[in-house]
Amino acid sequence: MDTATRTGVLILATAAVITGLYWFRDVLAPFALAVFLWLVIDSVAEEIEHRLRIIPRWLALSIALSVVGFSVAIIGAVIASTASDITSNGGAYGIRLDQLLRDAYGLVGRHDAPTISQLLHRINPGVFLANLAQSVQSLASDALFVSIYVAFLFAAQSNFSKKLDALFPDPDARSRAAAISASMRHAMGSYLWVQSFTGAITALGCYITMKLVGMDQALFWAFVIFLLGYVPTIGPLVGTLFPVLFALVQFPNYWQPAVIFLGVGFWQFSIGTFMVPRMQGDSMNLSTLVVILMLSLWGAIWGLPGMFLSAPLTVMLMIILAQFTYTRPVAVLLSQDGHPEKGLVSTPQPGM
């Protein structure tokens, strides 16, 4: 097969894979999130088992499940409390929004600013509430499927090694497949650990800043900042913008939103610039341009779940492409320094 034919086949195969990922996104995106959550729980269990050697595996896994479940319950309680508080303070927030609209119109020399009630009437609240209800229903359905997938992943985990032996009877091929699998798991595990740890520190610093200024729902916005930390590049920007916009609605003056902008921006910038690269090392050997492009691509294919998982999915893709002679140039382009194998658990020679 000549080079032109090989290139054409590769392009067609890539298009077919992207099309399949898009058309089956309702199934694949929840499953990818389930794998993400499964790795988080399994990594916590492994860390507990490593630190406390007297604890058996099943007990470490039970503790990890309890920790993750408790964290999810806390987040749910905070969201419910925030929704209740916003509803009870809706009148005061509405008055402030009217004032912000008047100020914005005044900046351009106009004095016919509409009120929030008028804007809500124009956008048809019935349609908005229907779309909101549909989104909540879809989210609940996805959460159920993710929980089911996670349960079955743990149930099937004990047979992974046996399946690997059956798939690759040849010892060399089996060793190669195990090395690739270990490399992908190591890269994703490192990414999850670094993003979770640095995200928690960033959220804590932002929470203290917002609490000192007197901002409402500071804990909720700290959770939002933590979750958005998993979205490369765009997440920290959005995580800075949202609390500032809420502060504009809450406070009658503008100095408090300015302080929150500077404080939250300081934590996001300092930790993202100095701590994250040092901790990630070579585990996220991706070009910055590639990170942004893949964020857009995975977001277009899978929506918000794709944006959350864009970085680890791209690292896994780079590792796989680096193992084949004809696709290794693509892996080199995806990497930051031209060495896609750098920092992996094992480096099999390409040529499969």
End-to-end Cα distance: 16 Å
Q: What's the SSE pattern?
A: HHHHHHHHHHHHHH
Low-pLDDT windows of residues = 346-352
Q: Structural class of the secondary elements?
A: mainly alpha
Q: Give the strand content.
A: under 5%
- Portion in helices: over 70%
The dominant shape is globular
Using only C-alpha atoms, the radius of gyration works out to 24 Å
Per DSSP, the total helix count is 14
Instruction: Please tell me the overall pLDDT.
Output: 80
Task: Report the major sheet.
Answer: none
Q: How many strands appear in the DSSP assignment? A: 0
What does it look like?
The chain is mainly alpha-helical and 352 residues long. The chain has a domain at 1-88 and 143-158. 80% of the residues lie in helices and 0% in strands. It has helices spanning 3-23, 25-51, 57-88, 90-107, 116-122, 125-156, 160-167, 171-213, 218-228, 234-250, 255-280, 288-302, 304-321, 328-334. The chain is globular. The relative contact order is 0.09.
